[in-house]
Design a protein that fits this description.
By secondary structure, the protein is an alpha+beta fold. It is 38% helix and 19% strand. The longest helix has 13 residues, at 39-51. The chain starts with 10 loop residues before the first helix and ends in a 13-residue tail after the last strand.
């Protein structure tokens, strides 16, 4: 596995990334005006950041009524030694698993789940618990999201 080398980011890079995280569809002209630089500078910075892998892609953020439909839950997973990659591959094939992270502490992995109902969540957790390499899971249903810096809008 190739190690990712963090490129050096200057103040303009960080400001540009922050602006794009707020609105990835912001026009180059508007970004240039906001940041006080030429359009060509913004274009070249975006291209460089994409090429370096700093900007990995662009996405659609759903409004809260759509994004938060159904149940959301976190689940901690304990994995058998040396089977972490196998478990991650299996989890990546389950659409209701929205993200996964390796963590320190009691669990090896933390995953973010979305289900339409408690019954669907129950089946999903049973499916995950039965995966080859999974020792145990512990879940917590999200009651309300108080804030999420990743999904803030202007």
């Amino acid at each position: 596995m190739n190690a990712f080398r963090y490129p050096e980011l200057d103040s303009l890079d960080r400001q540009l990334i922050a602006a794009l995280q707020i609105n990835a569809r912001e026009s180059v002209a508007s970004l240039a005006r906001t940041l006080g630089v030429a359009r060509t500078t913004i274009l070249s910075r975006i291209q460089r950041l994409e090429k370096q892998g700093v900007i990995h892609g662009y996405t659609v953020q759903l409004a809260a009524p759509f994004h938060e439909q159904g149940l959301q839950a976190y689940a901690g997973i304990i994995v058998k030694p040396k089977l972490g990659n196998q478990v991650l591959r299996q989890l990546s094939q389950i659409p209701e698993v929205e993200s996964a992270a390796t963590v320190s502490g009691e669990f090896d992995l933390m995953i973010w789940l979305r289900a339409r109902s408690t019954e669907e969540l129950d089946l999903l957790l049973d499916t995950i618990g039965a995966l080859e390499g999974v020792v145990r899971t512990h879940s917590a249903i999200v009651l309300a999201r108080k804030f999420d810096r990743r999904h803030q809008h202007r």
